[in-house]
Amino acid sequence: MKRDPIRIAVVGVGNCASALIQGIEFYREKGLKDPNFEALGLMHLDIGGYKPWDIEVGAAFDVDRRKVGKPLKEAIFAKPNCTKILYPNLNDSGVIVSMGHVLDGVSEHMKDYPEERTFVLANEKPCNVEKVLRDSGIDILLNYLPVGSDRAAAFYAEACLNAGVSLINCMPSFIVSDPRWAKRFEEKGIPAVGDDVKSQMGATIIHRALVKLFEDRGVRLDRTYQINTGGNTDFLNMLNRDRLKSKRISKTEAIQSQLGIPLEPENIHIGPSDYVPWQNDNKVCFLRMEGRGFGEVPLNLELRLSVEDSPNSGGMTIDAIRCCQIAREREIGGPLTSISAYAMKHPLVQIPDEQAKLMVEEFIAGKRER
């Protein structure tokens, strides 16, 4: 049966949005040429009758003068975007990037860096976001705002509630995992997914797996750190430590949730550490774990991960979009427990990854979550 496309809007036409949009076209080309191709990076090629290329962008919001007013197919490659090019020749969707609302979306320190590395505000009047969402027939809005944009995240969440649009909150402002917001989405019958998207094979998911392995094998974890460096605007934005509170909470709780007895705060350090411009969208993660095994004999583990940061979350987001659309069709409102636990660092309910994956499979097959 032919399905209507899933119409999405993106807030923040940065590296993650660029990787996602390119990725949709990448899978479209591969899938239409070879129906049996291996869809790496996705849970399934088909979820609920939807392929990745059944997702189409109907609206986009940004505040950078190099993107606002430009066709989306050009804006995703504009500075300061620096992610890997997956699919350079996009079809013209006709979407023009609208001027969003700045609020707390741009940190003051960003103005001290070269234009090609940072945000350059457009001198435009913000659009009526709710009207754009309605007029564009949007089903789901993806929030890709910079870390620390708490007021802006709340503004777009409010717009979703008023326009009847689902929210997938890919950044660590706590909306979907906040019981007050969760109740409002549930009362309105609008499904939502969040908060703070995991990567396919990123620092947090690997750290979680290793912590769980220590726990399952009877090793007591005494202390651990996760230190990350990168050169994209995400890392530049996070040089302002005042914007990091929710990010640290999100990443730390994702790790602590795997332990029977959480570590004392002084024994766990999780979070972004420094901005290295020449790394661009490459993220380098350093993990150290110190524990005790049989006879309380000490053991230490160190790991270094290097990965292109933005494409690393694209598959998780495509899976979340399709699960969210299934929930809309089934008239399920509020936070989606399974896909949020599987795809997000800070869901309303933390669930071990292997159990969360099983729950997503059951949800796709038709089992209700509540």
What does this structure look like?
The protein has helices at 15-33, 72-75, 129-135, 150-163, 179-188, 203-216, 233-237, 245-256, 314-329, 337-343, 353-365; strands at residues 6-11, 55-62, 98-99, 140-143, 166-169, 191-194, 220-230, 268-275, 282-292, 298-308, 334-335. By secondary structure, the protein is of the alpha/beta class. The chain has two domains: 6-199 and 312-365, NAD(P)-binding Rossmann-like Domain (Rossmann fold, 3-Layer(aba) Sandwich), CATH 3.40.50.720; 203-309, Dihydrodipicolinate Reductase, domain 2. A seven-stranded parallel beta sheet has the order 3-2-1-4-5-6-11, with helices on both faces. Strand 4 (140-143), helix 4 (150-163) and strand 5 (166-169) form a beta-alpha-beta unit. The radius of gyration is 20 Å and the shape is globular.
Largest sheet: 7 strands, parallel
Find the CATH superfamily of the largest domain: NAD(P)-binding Rossmann-like Domain
CATH topology of the largest domain: Rossmann fold
The ordered H/E elements are EHEHEHEHEHEHEHHEEEHEHH
Query: Spatial order of the strands in the main sheet?
Result: 3-2-1-4-5-6-11
- Specify Rg, calculated over alpha carbons: 20 Å
Number of domains: 2
**Helix content percent band:** 25-40%
Shape estimate: globular
Q: First CA to last CA: what distance?
A: 28 Å
Given this structure, which CATH class of the largest domain is correct? Alpha Beta
> How many strands?
11
- CATH architecture name of the largest domain: 3-Layer(aba) Sandwich
Given the helix and strand composition, which structural class is it?
A: alpha/beta
